[in-house]
Amino acid sequence: MIVSVFNMGTQRKALKQVNLTRYLWLIILFLPIICLGQSKSDSTNVYRVNSPVELPVSIGAFVLAKTGFNKLRTVSSLEIHELEEYEYAQVNRLDRSLACLGNCQLDRSQQLSDLALNITLVAPAALLFDRAIRKQWLDFITLYVETEVINTGMYLGSAFSVRRARPLVYDQDLPMNLRAGNDRTNSFYSGHVGNACTATFFMAKVYTDYHKIKGWKRIGLFGLASLPPAYIGYHRLKAGKHFMTDVLIGYLAGGLIGIAVPEMHRNRQKSKSLAKANFWYGQKGAGMSLRVMLK
To answer: In angstroms, rounded to a whole number, what is the distance separating the alpha carbons of residues 190 and 193?
Structure first.
């Protein structure tokens, strides 16, 4: 009876943490977008950005995200005695055939993917060498921080909602202490790839918007933007951190956010575009719908 009560208390505590963190990522996701309603419209600017409002809100959301990541480490932990529940045959055929098990260089690939991600995250700062963008540097920084905040919110939402073991958990050639521990059941989806794709696609989107680049040249720039996330995704696979589907979904989510958030801020007077976000909340839950029309 004592053991049962203890287990119930532990489960309730874990459930409470998950529920609190879900509210957290909803705040991270929604607040920066709500700021669109406060954006100033200036016909001389490419984007409508209200930096005095959006930048503090986005920075505050990043601080909240730190709490989310700390909770995620414990929520996604795995004990050694639980490893017997994870059999490689449970993995779908596509991921099972492409997963890196056995002779993979886990540590080296982890280091390379971390290094590449850090470089990619600061890469958008290179756009400040462009005279047109540098003139509106505060709007640019605000927009980038906000874009990464929304990407972080999307990642936390999925990572808390889906429990999926990382490939290395299934690798019986690894020591037990490497297969178990924190951050072992948050494989879905790849946050590294999502963050990198958000940054590079944001760069391509902003640069082509400022210089009104269309056609094949625009496609070529987005093609270049896809290369760093692909490199990072390759090493996340080699590090045993993610399956192929985790990488692909991170790619898709990050790319969409990197494009959609700047598009939502486009100055309607210049771009003749319309982006509208609708929010709903009720007893059964909350949500958001996004509509983007390009003319």
So the answer is: 5
CA torsion 135-142-154-288 (nearest 10°) is -100
Distance CA 166, CA 241 (A): 5
Domain ranges of the chain: 11-294
Residue type, 281: Y
Helix or strand holding residue 255 (H, E): helix 244-264
Phi and psi at residue 76, in whole multiples of 5°? -95, 20
Q: What pLDDT, in 10s, does the model give residues 46-99? A: 898 888 888 888 888 888 888 888 888 888 888 888 888 887 778 888 887 777
Q: Report the amino acid identity of residue 233.
A: G
pTM, to two decimals: 0.79
Residue where the block lists tokens 């920084």: 141
Q: What are phi and psi of 285, to 5 degrees?
A: 140, -170
